[in-house]
Amino acid sequence: MAQRTVLVVLFDDVQSLDVTGPVEVFAGAEKQTPGTYRIRTASLDGAPVRTSSGLTVVPDQALARATVPDTLIVPGGQGTRHPDPRLVEWLRGHGSRARRLVSVCTGAILLAAAGLLDGRRATTHWAYSGRLARDHPAIDVDPDPIFIRDGHVATSAGVTSGIDLALALIEEDLGRDAALTVARHLVVFLRRPGNQAQFSAQLAAQTARREPLREVQQWITEHPGADLSVESLAARAGFSPRHFARSFQAETGTTPGRYVDRVRLEHARRLLEDTGDGIEEISRVSGYGTPEAMRRAFVKSLGTSPAEYRRRFRPAPVQ
């Protein structure tokens, strides 16, 4: 197997974890199987850069001297707010030449400025997805997933999602066992699926202003297996079903049904990851009723069955 070069672009005010997260993943794979990856970093002129947290990073070389890599990683950070035109121009001329073009967090803004995301589906940190969509209407911006693959281009959400994406790339190159070994060393799950939402249901939804609705939100979280129909929830809040549905959406930004669906999915995922309970029991206590109903929900939201999800994402027992 030929050694693959991974080149990470550096610039002032880069987010340090956007750089070190993927680098640690690829370095872990290289330590496990020497000769698989050659990891390089490069800035415009080869000079050290200062990250947004104050760390100084010394690159291996200048971008002008870098050869075409197998995987080109463009991190994000405050430095993407007003990018150096020279960096954008370098990406425009060299980004499409790599076998895989990857952005972490707001690195997608740099790729967009270079025209490398036009006509593609992409994501970025939730706080900047609106800006990306507004400034670049030719891009199909999806603010929800933690990472998206569209052809040879992969974009990821905020900071730690770069680790998830890097693990996915390791799995693609070297297989699941290699990626799992790296994940264990980093003490992270292998791996959050790309279409997993950036937020949990509780974080994604706004907290309702009125206390009865807030209490219903909390009750849903604590009782995913209960009757969570609009009629039942409305009675608990003391509203009519129609008034409850309208008020819940107005104050939380989502419908009661969507909120319940996300809470149940997250509850089932946690049980699959953290317990040895059977699929039938998990489907019951998570509110799905039957394993088939839970399977349909998993396939629709995560693209995988509950059994496959458990196989992939439940940590193996320590020997």
UniProtKB/TrEMBL annotation:
InterPro entries: Class_I_gatase-like, DJ-1/PfpI, Homeodomain-like_sf, HTH_AraC, INH-QAR
Keyword Transcription regulation applies: yes
PROSITE patterns per record: HTH_ARAC_FAMILY_2 (PS01124)
Top-level taxonomic group: Bacteria
Protein name: AraC family transcriptional regulator
Domain HTH araC/xylS-type: 214-312
GO MF annotations in UniProt: DNA-binding transcription factor activity; sequence-specific DNA binding
SMART domains the record matches: HTH_ARAC
Keyword Acyltransferase (UniProt): no
Originating species: Streptomyces mutabilis
Keywords: Transcription, Transcription regulation
Taxonomic classification: Bacteria, Bacillati, Actinomycetota, Actinomycetes, Kitasatosporales
